[in-house]
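Worked example

This section walks through a single chain of length 808. The input is the sequence exactly as stored; nothing has been trimmed or padded.
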Amino acid sequence: MNAGEVRERAGRNPSDDAVRALRMMAGIPIGVFEIENGKITYANDYLLSRSGYSIEEIRALDPAELFVPVDRDRVRQALSERARGVPGQPTTYRLAAKDGTECVVEIVSHPIGDGGRVEGTARDITSEARLTELHRAVLELGAVILGEQDVDHILQLVLDTITEYSGFRRAVLTLYDLSVPVPLDGEAKKILSSGLTLEERAALQGQTPMPPQDRRRAFDDAFRMGSAYYIPHDRAPWGPEHGLSGTLAVDGWHVDDYLFIPLRGSAGIIGLISVDDPVDASAPTALSIEPVASLANFAALAVERVHKLNQLRTQKDILRGLSRLGEEISQIQDRGELCAAAARRVCDDLGHDYCGVWLRDRDEIVLEGWGAKGTFTRSEIPSRGTRRPLEGGGLTRWAMRYVEPVLVDDVAADPRHRGTRPSVRSLAAVPILGRKGVRGALDIESEKLAAFGELDLEVFASLASQLSIALSSLDRRETLSRVTALGQRIATSTEVNEVLASALDYLAEHFHYELATVFLPGDGDRLEIRGIRGPYPEFGKGPGWVLPSGRGIVSWVARNRRFALVNDVKADPRYLEALPETRSELAVPLLFADMLVGVLNVESPAPSFFDDEDRVVLEMVANYVATALSNLASQQTLRAQALRDPLTGLFNRHHFNSIVGPEMSRSDRHARPCTIMMVDVDGFRAVNNRFGHLKGDEVLQEVARILLGQTRASDHVIRYGGDEFVILMPETEEKEASLVADRLRQHMPLVPRRTGVSEIAMGLSIGIYTRRPRESSSLESMLEEVDRRLYADKRARNVERADDYKHG
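Given that input, the structure is written out below as C-alpha cells.
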C-alpha cells in the first residue's frame, strides 16, 4: 500500500489500520513524500522538520527548489522520468533547508500508476557522506604527509583535514618532546589548531599545557572509545583549567566534553588531538572517529620519521666526510671501488680501525672492498675478492642470516665471533639490505672495547642504505648495458634456437633465473616449449611439450597479453604445475607490433622471489627476443616470397632454376631418371577475353590446386609463366609421368565448373621429357624438347586448329 492509498483509506474509514499506518509514516526518521502533477501533495513530519517548511509552504514550492541550485536540473529530470513511469535508482542530492543549512539526502522514488503520481523516501546520509569523504581524504593525505619533512606543515594538514571532513569544527594538536625516552612524560613542544578564532587561539596559548599525570589519566582505558578516548564533562579527572569550552552542544555531546585521539609512535603516545563542536546532531562514535585515528597514526609516523631525519642531520659533525659519500659513490662505476670508498669513509671519517664490505654471490660471500688504519698490518687483511661460504659462523654471517645488526662490546666474550686478528676488541656487523633480502654486510672492527654505540649503529645503517642504493643503481646500469648487448647479439642470430638459447643463458648468468622456459605458438597456435632451462624434462615438460589449451599462467599471459607476477603459485588457481619445487612465477608476453610471438616464463622455488624490477628486466629481454623472432620470421617469409608465385602459391621459375641442376646431379649419382613435364592451359585466352583477367586468375589458382593434388610431395610444381606450368619429377619414368598427365586431364573439367566458366572448352596440353642418368643434354635443349612435345600434343588434340599451334 503506497502513501496515497494509505491516506485515501484513512479518509474513508478513520478507524481503519490505515490511520495508524499514516501516523507511523509521519513519525518515522525517514522523509516520505508524494508528488502529483509536479507538486508535492504529501510530506511526513520528518521531511518537514529537515526542510524547515510547513506543509502549506512545501505544497506551494516547485520540488526542485528544495535542493541546492546545482542539483535542481537533476531533480527535475528525475521527476519527469518517474511521472512517465520510468523506474529510478537511489540518487544523492544536497537538500537546502529554509534557513539555508544543507544536508546530503539519498532519495528513492518510483511512479504510481499512470497518472503522473510519484512517491518516495529521503534519507539523511550527511554523516555517511562525510565519513566517506573523510576516508578518501585520509588516504590522499597519508601519502602526502609521509613524504613531507616539515613537522608543522604535516600537523597543520592533519588538523585542517579533520575540521574540513570529520564533522568537528575545531581541533587542537599537542606534540610532546620526542627526544626523551617516553614522550608522554615530556613537555609539550608544539600546540597547533584549526577552526579556532584569533581570540580562542590566544586563550589556548595562554593556558598551561596539560601535565604528564593528567595526560595519563586522559588515556585511561575507562575512557576508551575505539581508537579514541571520550571523557564526559562530569567525569573529567581534572578541573576546568584544561582546554577551551565548545560552542555547540547536541544530543550526547556537551560543550565541555573531551574527545582525545592519541598520536601513537614507536615510543608510545607522542601527542594528542582534541576535537569539539560537532557540525550536526550525530554525536561521535567509534566508527566515525576511526578515520581520524588513522590520520593521527599517519601523522605520528611522519613526525617520528622527520624527527629521526633531523637527528641524522645533527650528526653531520660526526659524519664529516661520510655525508659526502653519496655524491662520491654516485660517480663510481665499479662495484669494488664503490665498496672500497664506503669502507675508507668508515675508517677515515669515523676513526674506526677496519671496515670490510662483504657482498653475497649465490652461496658465497665476497670481500668487495675494505679500509683500514695503520694499526692493521696488510697480512691481517684478506685480499679483495676473497670468497667464503655463505653458511658458517661469525658475526658477519650472523647479521646476514638474521637480517639484524649486531654490536659486540668485547668479542672475546661472544662465542659467535670467529675472527683471527688478536688486536680486535669490539665489532659491529650491519646487514646491507637489497630488494630481495640481504645482499651483504658491513664488518666494522676496533681495537677498543665497547667502541660502538647506538649512534654509530644508526650511522652504519645509513651507510649500508646508501651503499645498497648505489649498488642497485650500478646494477641497473649494468643490467641495461647487458640487456642492450644481448639485444645486439640475438639481432644477428640466424636461427630461432640460437635466439632462445642466448636469452636463457643471459637470464641464468646475470639474474640467477635457473628455471626458465620460452613458449612459442605451434600447430593450431597452441603454445609449446621451444626454449628451456631447468629440470623440466624430468617431469615430462621437455622441448616440444604442448601447453594444454587455456591452462596455466602462461596461457593467461598469452590470452591477455600482459605480464603475470605470482608470489605463491600454490594459491593461484591459474597455476599448472611443471616443477613440484616452484613457489613463485613471472611470465611476460613476447609482443611485436601488438602481435603475440610467444611467452617468456621464469620460476623460482622461493616464494615472492620476483618483483617489479624483475618484471622490467624480463620485459626488456622479451622485447629483444620478440623483435629477433619477428625478424627471423620476416626473413623466412621474404625467402619464401622470393621462391613462390604470389598468385598460385606454386614455386616460381627462379626456384626451378635453383633446383634443376642439383636434381640432375642427384639423378646421375643414383642412376635414376628425372622427368620434366610442361603443362599449358587450353582455352585460357578465351577466359581472359570473355570474363576478364580476374576470372583468369581464379582459373590459374584452380589449375594449381589440381596440379598439387595429383603430384607427389617430392615433385616440384612450378608456374613457369602465364598459363604455363612445369613439373619436375625426380626418379620418374616417362610411362609414370604419362599416368600423371592422364589424371590431370581427367580432373581438368572441374576447373570451368568450379570457376563459373563452364561455357568455355578448357583442357591441358602436356609435354613430357625424361632425362636418363648421365645424359649430356643441356637444360636449354631439354626445355626446348619438352616445349616442342607440348605443342605437338596441343596440335594433336586440336586438329581443326592445328595451324594455330605450329611451334617455331
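What to look for: Confidence is low (pLDDT under 50) at residues 799-808.
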